[in-house]
Structure formats: C-alpha cells, structure tokens
Design goal:
5-stranded mixed β-barrel, 3-stranded antiparallel beta sheet, 10 strands, globular
Length: about 240
C-alpha cells in the first residue's frame, strides 16, 4: 500500500480540496480524502478504473494511506479538510494546465469523442467548457500535446440530465450521426465491455471504510450501476444520443 509521507499544500483548485503530497515511493500525488466524502471516493476510484480500461488518458493513480498523525500535524491552509485514512492518489503530471477552450481544435478527434461517450456512459455532467469558461476536469500538457482526464467523483449522478449533458459538455459538438456509424459503434461497445471487465477487480479493492456510510444509507448501488452500464454497452447507449 502506498503511504503518504509529506503533505505539501492544497491544490490550486478543486471542490473536493485535493492536496499535493509526497508518497513513500518519492513521487508527488494529488490526494483526495475526507473532503471528497466516502461515496465520492468510491466513485473516484471506480471511475478512474473504468476510464483507464476504456482507454482514456488517465494519470497514474493508486489507493494510498494517510496516517492520522501526519494529517493532524499539518497546520497549513485548509487543514480542517484533512483527515487520516485511505485516500485516492493521482500522480502529479508536470507542466500541465487546465484545458482551454481555444485548445480543443488541437485535440485528436477520436479522443474527444471517446471522452464524450465515456461521460455519457457513466452519467457524468461535470466536464463543461465554452468560450466563456467552465470546469472541464481535463489537463493539457502542451510540450507533449497530450490530454489527461481527471476527476470522476461525480459519476453515476442520480440527477443526471441528458438535455443538460448535450448542452454543456466540453466535447458536445463531436456528435455527428454516430448511431449510423456501425464500425465506430462496434469499437466503442468493445471499449465499454473491456471497462466493464475491470469492474470487479476495482470493486474488490475499495477500502471497507469508504463503504461504511453506504452500508447504512445505500446511496451507491453497484448492482444497479453494473446493470445499466451493461445494457448501454449492449446498444442502449446509442438511444441516448441527441
């Protein structure tokens, strides 16, 4: 298990107050813990695993452990948002910036479409961007012209709105009669199935303490999500296109 050995500072942005930390392997990670909520951490972990298996460019990530003593000793900014326990750790990518609207045309079209369809599949509305701004939850590394997909803690949104999704998603314009492209449909259905195949392995690694609250209130229903994801992978996703 990766252990956090140093808390450096809170990230410059992020509603879940991630912290830049150093781990026992000597690498720097953005760490999400207590402030993200236990269900948010479950979604973050499962979403990152699904995205990776789907073939999206996700920064390296691991489960990690933050000791109570280290969390309690931190007296820097946002200290109240820290608490010991199991955390989600995403490896820091050097020299990245948040994706800008004007950069979108420079991205590979297949990648843009893949991000769009993945977010539709996992019912994730929190990836917005227009010329007026937004919250894309995407990082751009200009020296390599590479995109990184981050932040999955709001997937499986119970209030997910297809209308809102197709109005606000950063890559909404990528849809062009995709239900008529048989080969492309087959390709993405295969990617969804590959992601589904990763579910059980990822679920088995979820720390029990993240599920304690869910055991009492049943907010996150894995069987329900698996069934819908499976139905979509078998063709239902195409019925949700505009």
């Amino acid at each position: 298990m990766l252990e956090i050995v140093e808390i450096i500072r809170p990230a410059d942005q992020g509603r879940t107050t991630p912290f830049l930390c150093t781990a026992c392997d000597g690498n720097s990670y953005f760490v999400k813990g207590y402030a993200a909520s236990s269900i948010g951490l479950v979604k973050e972990w499962m979403g990152a695993n699904l995205a990776q298996a789907f073939g999206l460019p996700v920064p390296e990530f691991q489960l990690a452990y933050l000791a109570d003593a280290l969390a309690n000793a931190y007296e820097g900014p946002a200290a109240s948002e820290l608490k010991g326990g199991y955390v989600f750790a995403s490896k820091q990518i050097p020299s990245v910036t948040e994706l800008k609207f004007e950069t979108i045309p420079h991205l590979d079209k297949t990648t843009r479409l893949a991000v769009l369809l993945f977010d539709l599949w996992v019912e994730h509305e929190d990836r917005t961007l227009t010329e007026l701004g937004g919250n894309p939850n995407l990082l751009w590394k200009p020296d390599e012209s590479k995109l990184y997909v981050i932040d999955h803690n709001l997937i499986f949104d119970p209030a997910f709105s297809h209308e809102s999704f197709w109005t606000t998603h950063v890559f909404k314009s990528e849809f062009r009669n995709k239900q008529d492209d048989f080969i492309e449909k087959q390709t993405f259905e295969a990617r969804m199935q590959k992601a589904l195949d990763s579910w059980q392995s990822a679920w088995d690694k979820v720390p029990p303490e993240w599920l304690e609250y869910n055991a009492d209130y049943s907010i996150f229903n894995p069987n329900q999500h698996i069934q819908r994801l499976t139905d979509d992978a078998n063709g239902n996703l195409w019925l949700k296109l505009p």
